[in-house]
Write a structure and sequence with these properties.
Residues 42-368, 464-685 form the Membrane transport protein MMPL domain. The chain crosses the membrane at residues 174-192, 199-219, 231-249, 276-296, 302-329, 369-391, 511-530, 537-562, 574-592, 626-643, 649-667. The two termini are 26 Å apart. This protein has a 4-stranded antiparallel beta sheet, with helices on both faces. The protein contains 24 helices and 18 strands. Helix 8 (195-219) runs antiparallel to helix 11. It is an alpha+beta fold and 803 residues long. The model is unreliable at 702-712 and 797-803 (pLDDT under 50).
Length: 803
């Protein structure tokens, strides 16, 4: 890793040109090829899949998207000449547009009468495009929308519904990503205080996500990738890209402040935090690949798009980032930090401020903090008991959209079940008994048998209840388990509503296996990384707690409707069936990042001191600020996807934002360290027999090879600590650090101000001195073969800012 980082740093122009060329090359290819996203809900061995196969056999040429034009009059009837004279010309103009296959008007003969409501105030026309919704040009759809709504007048309302219409009313593509980047930039500037340092994580995220999206777009021509995959890839790619760069840039800035040369600091940062980024990115990809165990084809494309974006973000962080660090040099620090470094010399790392105080507070009151954190998470998890999986439709759109208005008009005129009719499909035989049986079934509003085609008969069944209601799900079960067998027919229940129900059932059945897979994998990875049984067990439990609480928030917002109007997210409904799998995968991968970053520092301190309380306190104090900053960036990026206009992406954004916030701000900052204080040395217990059999995995290796001590130190540093007026300073804390910042020895000065520190070998070290009421001082010392005399002067009342 060090060799790669050094090469990229020294050949920074070449690396930058390669990345820019790759980004523009992929962008040009993707824009030329266009998109071919496809939502394939392939559910083998399900009743709705059998119905779909029969319909495809009977009606092979019905692949175009079918949308709806709905109109309503406040007074009179839709059959009035004044209404017909405005609607009919509009429908005729739409039918003549290139790309529109057919328009079925309610005014076209006796068959059109069924498209007029019983009270005569609402009617609809169906228009069929020549292509699927994602392939229909937006200009054509906008033309259809404008033409239809041009027929409006006072007392005549015209609205449109359908997938193609839904696409053109969404916000401009990239709006949510741009808002997320701006929010992340604000957080980064507050964290770094430097414009150049702020831009580094943004640039890495843009390159990683941009190349990931272009690659996914090209792959959509060779495999089935759902249209939500690019949104989810952007969501996770922006989050991890900015976070991974943040970890590395933070380590690099810390190295420069300690006196390292910018090149050496960059190499050290990549060889330490860069390795952790590789590990974290790998765990995210493995967690995403865990979705494949569900064997749901719809999720295969999501795995491809998101995993590819994560891989490219990791590549950008480990190759492009060191090149950019080479261009900036010391300017990665703020001007104030550069002036202080030039005037006062290198600074030692010392946890201070709120992070240090909080860490000390957790150590003093672990039971109280753990209990409070558990209560908060338990309360938030209560709504998950009401979780109901399903599928969102245009009835969940915002009330101001034309698709939602069209949905509501159809429900008003033809019943709530009209927006999600069921299709009972049978092949051969007499369907008379089956039709009669369906007509007498409670919950059925209307039944219509279509003329047979290729020996296949389709019976349209309109429920009395909406597609998302539990009563409609119960009706599907009744038809399958009672009505069809009683009629002696071999039939299957299909349609969008039945497919959604089967998808939710299959997902629910396979969810336990999926959870067991990713939890077991996380346990194994942490077991190898930290040589402990308790640490991975704690992490697995925390992941389950975080998942329960985040899904509780999701149910309260999207299923119960709390805050939906405030967020502008439409109407409440069931949770998308695919969301638990996607959210759990991403939550597992992201929480592993924070767990590794937090516990690796604790583990490092434990290895050197064998003091659990100190290890937990120091680890939390030194990492909580970076973890919280990274989490805040993730939350901003995820919440920005509420603006995407896609209900699935908005639901995923809110759910992941809640999951990351709860995981970082409550679990990793409070519950995990409190639990580790309570468990004591048991945190690091591993049976000897297991220790011998486990492979060794260095998540974040030591920053430099430490010299081996013999029977005594190779040399010493000694001298006096005095005030500005020459008085000895008693009890000053004097610390000897390696160039990478590792503590090698620490003593307190005696009454006469003298001190003596052990030095393991000749070399360059960092000597840090601090005392109550005095400033903190740090300087590089070079030790040769003999003892080094080094006196330190502390100015009373002066306080140096220490990073």
């Amino acid at each position: 890793m060090a060799a790669l980082a050094r090469w990229c740093y020294r050949h920074r122009l070449v690396v930058l040109l390669l990345w820019v060329g790759a980004l523009f090359g992929l962008g040009f290819s993707a824009s030329t090829a266009g998109t071919n996203y496809a939502n394939v809900f392939s559910l083998p061995d399900t009743d709705s899949k059998s119905a779909y196969d029969l319909m495809e056999k009977a009606f092979p040429n019905t692949s175009g998207d079918t949308d709806t034009v709905v109109w309503k009059v406040d007074q009179g009837s839709v059959n009035d000449q004044a209404v017909r004279s405005r609607i009919t010309p509009a429908l005729d103009r739409i039918a003549k547009l290139p790309g529109v296959g057919a328009v079925t008007s309610p005014y076209a003969g006796p068959r059109g009468a069924v498209q007029i409501s019983s009270d005569g105030r609402i009617a609809y026309a169906q228009l069929t495009f020549a292509k699927r919704a994602n392939e229909v040009p937006k200009d054509l759809v906008q033309n259809v929308l404008d033409t239809a709504q041009g027929a409006r007048k006072s007392g005549l309302h015209v609205e449109l519904g359908g997938q193609a219409i839904q696409r053109v009313q969404q916000p401009p593509q990239g709006l949510s990503e741009m808002v997320g980047i701006i929010a992340a930039a604000v957080v980064l500037f507050l964290a770094f205080g430097s414009f150049f340092a702020m831009m580094l994580p943004i640039a890495i995220a843009v390159f990683g996500v941009g190349m990931g999206l272009f690659s996914t777009q090209l792959l959509s021509h060779t495999t089935d990738i759902p249209d939500i995959a690019p949104l989810l890839a952007s969501l996770i790619g922006l989050g991890v890209g900015i976070d991974y760069a943040l970890f590395i840039v933070t380590r690099h800035r810390r190295g420069i402040l300690r006196g390292l040369d910018p090149e050496e600091s960059a190499v050290t940062a990549l060889n330490t935090s860069g390795r952790a980024v590789l590990f974290a990115g790998g765990t995210v990809c493995i967690a995403l690949a865990g979705m494949l165990v569900t064997q749901l084809r719809f999720l295969d494309g999501v795995v491809i798009g998101t995993s590819l974006t994560v891989v490219l973000s990791v590549m950008a962080a480990t190759t492009l980032l060191p090149a950019l660090l080479g261009f900036l040099g010391p300017r990665v620090l703020s001007r104030r930090q550069r002036r202080r470094l030039a005037a006062d010399g290198p600074e030692p790392e010392r946890a201070s401020g709120l992070a240090a105080r909080w860490s000390t507070g957790v150590e003093k009151r672990p039971r109280r903090i753990a209990a409070l954190a558990l209560v908060v998470m338990a309360v938030l998890a209560v709504p998950v008991l009401s979780l109901r999986l399903g599928a969102t439709d245009q009835g969940n759109d915002d009330a101001s959209t034309t698709t939602r208005k069209a949905y509501d008009l159809l429900a008003e005129g033809f019943g709530p079940g009209f927006n999600g009719p069921l299709q009972v499909v049978t092949e051969g035989g007499d369907t008379t008994a089956l039709v009669k049986g369906i007509e007498t079934t409670p919950g059925v509003a209307r039944v219509a048998a279509l003329p047979p085609a290729q020996g296949v008969t389709v019976i349209q069944v309109v429920p009395k209840t909406s597609p998302q209601s539990k009563e409609t799900d119960d009706l599907i079960d009744t038809l399958r388990n009672e009505v069809i067998p009683k009629a002696g027919a071999k039939a299957h229940v299909g349609g969008v509503t039945a497919v959604s129900k089967d998808f939710a059932s299959v997902t629910g059945d396979r969810l336990p296996l999926f959870i067991a897979t990713i939890i077991g994998l996380g346990f194994l990875l942490l077991l190898i990384a930290f040589r402990s049984l308790v640490v991975p067990l704690t992490a697995a439990l925390m992941n389950l707690i975080a998942a329960a609480a985040s899904f509780g928030v999701l149910v309260a917002v999207f299923q119960w409707g709390w805050g939906l109007d405030l967020l502008g997210l439409g109407k409440e409904g069931p949770i998308n069936a695919f969301l638990p799998v996607i959210m759990l995968s991403l939550l597992f991968g992201l929480s592993m990042d924070y767990q590794v970053f937090l516990v690796s520092r604790m583990h490092e301190e434990w290895v050197h001191t064998r003091d659990n309380a100190r290890a937990v306190r120091v680890g939390l104090a030194e990492t909580s600020r970076v973890i919280n900053s990274a989490a805040l960036i993730m939350v901003c990026v995820f919440l920005a996807f509420v603006l995407s206009g896609d209900s699935g992406a908005a639901m995923a954004g809110v759910g992941l934002a809640a999951a990351v916030a709860l995981d970082a701000f409550i679990l990793r900052t409070a519950l995990v360290p409190a639990a580790m204080h309570l468990l004591g040395t048991s945190n690091w217990w591993l049976p000897a027999w297991l220790e011998k059999r486990l492979p060794h995995l260095a998540v974040e290796p030591s920053e430099e090879a430490e010299p081996q001590l013999g029977e005594g130190p190779a040399s010493v540093v000694h001298g006096f600590i005095r005030s500005a007026d020459g008085e000895p300073v008693d009890g000053a804390l004097v610390t000897l650090l390696s160039k990478g910042g590792r503590q090698l020895d620490r003593v307190r000065s005696l009454a006469d101000g003298s001190y003596i520190l052990s030095v393991p070998a000749p070399g360059t070290y960092l000597l840090a001195t601090s005392a109550t009421s005095y400033g903190s001082r740090a300087a590089q010392v070079v030790v040769t073969d003999g003892p080094l005399v080094y006196d330190v002067e502390l100015a009373e009342g002066e306080v140096d800012a220490v990073n």
